[in-house]
């Protein structure tokens, strides 16, 4: 079950079996059914997570009750509410399973302990944070500079096997368009 996590980490740093044992001891396995929450906006419950199976949406609930989807996350990807996790603030986002999912999570306290037990994980952590920052910047640039049709096509290209797991409501929210406009985009192909 933890094999995919080890492979993911060892793409960047090598681990001994002893170091791996420390990681496994600190990780918590969570199963979520479709539409269950890993995290609820404005709560004190924030994790860094590695998705073993399934998919998630990270979104905010606006004052008018509508959702704004910020990210989708899939198998073998990491996800985290960065500010909440690293600065122990209330959570900014909801993180909800789009299908039955399995995820390994770690708390901030356990991650700090891991850095003491396996110092080379700090190098992996830096790589992860850099990657997250690049993804956030790219998402912002895409929203500001690309037409919704182009963002849709790039999403389909990046996640060809996942597009049918995301309903039109979630996808239109992610793209920042109405359901009707998304339907027009899809029909043009």
List keywords for this structure.
alpha+beta, about 190 residues, 8 helices, about 45% helix
Rg from Cα: 17 Å
**Biggest sheet descriptor:** 4 strands, antiparallel
Strand order, largest beta sheet: 1-8-3-6
Average pLDDT for all residues: 92
Q: In DSSP terms, counting alpha (H) and pi (I) runs of 4 or more, how many helices? A: 8
Indicate the multimeric state.
single chain
Order of helices and strands: HHEEEEEEHEEHHHHH
Q: Shape, please?
A: globular
Walkthrough of the structure:
The model has no long low-confidence stretch (mean pLDDT 92). The protein contains 8 helices and 8 strands. It has a 4-stranded antiparallel sheet with strand order 1-8-3-6. The protein has a 4-stranded antiparallel sheet with strand order 2-7-4-5. Helix 2 packs antiparallel against helix 4 (108-117) and helix 7 (168-175) packs across helix 8. The chain has helices spanning 3-10, 17-26, 82-87, 108-117, 121-145, 148-158, 168-175, 179-187, and strands at residues 28-32, 37-39, 48-53, 55-61, 67-74, 78-80, 94-97, 101-106. The chain is an alpha+beta fold.
Concise synopsis of the structure shown:
With 189 residues, the chain is α+β, with helices and mostly antiparallel strands. The chain is 46% helix and 22% strand. The chain has eight helices and eight strands, in the order ααββββββαββααααα.
